Amino acid sequence: xxxxxxAGTNPADRGTVLGKSTPRIDGPLKTSGHAPYAYERHDxxxxxxxxxxxxxxxxxxxxxxxxxxxxxxxxxxxxxIRSTDMDVLGKHGxxxxxxxGGDEIRHYHQAVALVVAESxxxxxxxxxxxxxxxxxxxxxxxxxxxHRDTAMARKAEPDQDVGDFAAAFAEAPVTLDxxxxxxxxxxxxxxxxxxxxxxxxxxxxxVWSSTQMVNWLVEGLCSAFDLDPDQVRVDSPFIGGGFGSKxxxxxxxxxxxxxxxxxxxxxxxxLPRPAIANxxxxxxxxxxxxxxxxxxxGRITAIAHDGLSHTQPGGDGENSTAQTPFxxxxxxxxxxxxxxxxxxxxxxAMRAPGEASGLMALEIAMDEMAEKLGMDPxxxxxxxxxxxxxxQPDRPFSDRNFVTCLRQGADRFxxxxxxxxxxxxxxxxxxxxHGMAGAYRGALTMNSGALVRLRPxxxxxxxxxxxxxxxxxYTIIAQTAAEMLGLGVDQxxxxxxxxxxxxxxGSGGQFGAPSSTAGVYAACVKLREEIARRLxxxxxxxxxxADGRVTASGxxxxxxxxxxxxxxxxxxxxxxxxxxxxxxxxxxxxxFVELAVHAGTGETRVRRMLAVCxxxxxxxxxxxxxxxxxxxxxxxxxxxxxxxxxxxxRGFFANHDLAGYEVPVHADIASQEVVFLDTLDxxxxxxxxxxxxxxxxxxxxxxxxxxxxxATGLRIRDYPLTLDKVLEELPAI
Amino acid sequence: MTTDMTDQRSAPGADPGDRAAQxxxxxxxxxxxxMREIEIDNRTTLLDALREHLRLTxxxxxxxxGQCGACTVIVNGRRVNSCLTLAVMQDGHEIETIExxxxxxxxxxxxxxxxxxxxxxxxxxxxxxxxxxxxxxDEIAAGIPSHVTGDLSARIEITExxxxxxxxxxxxxxxxxxxxxxxxxxxxxxxx
Lengths: 733, 192
Ligand code: FES
Ligand code: FES
Prior knowledge:
The structure holds two protein chains of two kinds. Chain A is an alpha+beta fold. Chain A folds into three domains: about 1-35 and about 445-580, Aldehyde oxidase/xanthine dehydrogenase, molybdopterin binding domain (Aldehyde Oxidoreductase, domain 4), CATH 3.30.365; about 40-140 and about 185-280, Aldehyde Oxidoreductase, domain 4; about 395-440 and about 585-730, Aldehyde oxidase/xanthine dehydrogenase, molybdopterin binding domain (Aldehyde Oxidoreductase, domain 4), CATH 3.30.365. Chain A has 15 helices and 31 strands. Chain A starts with a strand and ends in a 21-residue tail after the last helix. Chain B is an alpha+beta fold. Chain B has two domains: about 20-100, Beta-grasp domain (Ubiquitin-like (UB roll), Roll); about 110-190, DNA polymerase, domain 1. In chain B, strand 4 (about 70-75) and strand 5 (about 80) form a beta hairpin. The longest helix of chain B has 16 residues, at about 125-140. The chains are: A alpha+beta, B alpha+beta. The interface between A and B is large, with 70 and 71 residues. The structure holds FE2/S2 (inorganic) cluster (2 copies). One FE2/S2 (inorganic) cluster binds near residues 67, 68 and 71 of chain B.
């Protein structure tokens, strides 16, 4: 199905199942421990061996020797695979650094060997016997802030230079010029990267893995092992979180496949938790200079955002300026994303890449600017709303209701009742603060396919290589098929994550939910057409599907009757047309936060959070809310605690486990409220839906930071807002 | 428990360190009400004994270092991080895992409440959260105080603060904490 114009009224609009809060259909499996994650597939292959990797102890240089004799002689060891035994293996197009092969070390904890043994214990013990000698490049400087002079333009995004920023900024009566920093962050999904690999006699490779994009992993494995796509099968039905970390091939699948090839037996490999932060990808640190000029009424006349981040050579780092060309009005604009090459581990996408860190800075800047103008920060944002691309005014937003988010949020939160004097409200030892921020995240769509089977018993099966990384794909796909075929959700079986199924959008960039359900919609339309044909070539548009029956010109037939002679299948994919480039598609939210800062210790406790979200049709309000509160939790972490600490001399992340890298726990999260505006975006998909998986994370950290300022009167522009940054300046107890 | 120091795979003349590494034991314990006997490498954690030997993979490995709580199981009525204890230390013990708490078609009230309130997303921390949540209610009922308990001589009330504090050894990176709270409170009230 070509989606070449905004959607009109269609069967998905009925809303009998879609749009209704629906408990996850995979919930009983997950809560009882019966959902099979990658490392747990004892059933899929007999005689599995365990692999345990050896990781580089330097950030940059060459391996001069790998002595594996002791490891090979250790009890239980079957094979040791050394990087120096082979040429560099091919990588996926999205990967920046190869995973294995050759003698070059490009980052700390790069995999250099794999020990394969009869047991995990034996492999792990023997991995400690592998001796690796390096020729390390000498002391380098891994501090982004000292490399401003070598910064380059990003190849992925051009600069935005509209009007005359310098002149407008110079003329503006009210201006802001501040620099903000965000640290490196790690995804820290709970399930480590893991794969089981097996080769058959014909040289075909099967990998049971944990991946967000099944087809990208197929492509990656083809490149690494010189295979054709029909020689590779990937299966990933359950994924214990990804957040971008499992978007494309990682070392676990490559190492498992190498181990299996060397031993002739299935091999499973999980990346040990302490290796994940340095071996895999991370969100890059950013240094962001923001300048805003406005007239005395608060209208922005000039805005500049310079965003610096680091990358391995050839990568894209973190584009913290991503939202700034589009979020607020202003005739004169200068947006300059910049990159520095550093041999830190590979910087790549983490949940809401770009906007998450960009809004951490921009939304503090907006708060500071409102204060300079003597305006309410909500009103300042409303005044500078735009319904068109500010740099290209003939390009409108497809559907933008940011102002409604702001107004509803302020109302519900009781924003008007807050104390507006920073540091001016105290309850005992606690300084109380309120803050807000706006959220913007692009609404991407990706072509997506699915196959639908109508079974002789009148129930349906959907197959697609789409993944459910906690996002709720199983359930919204079942809802979509149920809506289209007039079935109950419990009459639809959903099969995901297998490369033998049609290629889908996969999960990433919050495009998964809208795109994959559009693909299922397309396949269901095709099935409806086939049913119309079987009912005597009636007009498919006139069919009414309800309660397991289809009605055509007054005659009602059960779906079981229609499929009585054998299963009916229909496959299709949605292909999104170029008309989507003529509009700006995005999602919006307004965040409101109340917190308390301890006057003696500087400890910050967030007391309540509210997000009002605008993201088109919400397919399953129950799981969509979970996505948003989950994003808010991650954003609270970004605001208050999360930071990969860089050893700036040796080039690695020092706090590379879940003890050193702190993420929010139960005790950090109090009340959370989420409101979805009742909006539809016909330009986005046939279901008029947009994603929410990343929206909740966008902006929330700045809302926390702004509330912290309101509580303490101390403006911190360097995340995270740890207590050491305020302790000295807190008021006398 | 029996320990055999002369594993057949030990190379003759191997140094004592090697031999020690190859010590194997037979352990007997009860898992979900069933007596199990396994012969394992002494280095095997309870977590890996469950996941790899008994193929009870409902218990998850998030870190293997006692940092995440995904591996929480109940041993002799108390919750433990099963990655931090060796299987050979469990001889004669009673172990309950998520599989013993309920099945997909026969969920325990806590499991059902997690489904009803969407107290999870990816599901990987979930078995550990559910084991902990049930244990937390038991610990409060048993009068075991926590860091946030006020009056140590009074009966401990089930409050959101008590639950949050006691659940904080179980990380959920998907951030489903608020929904878990709703589920746990519902179960604590004995509501269906
Ligand atoms: S796996 Fe045991 S605490 Fe993380
Ligand atoms: S549900 Fe994913 S980590 Fe908790």
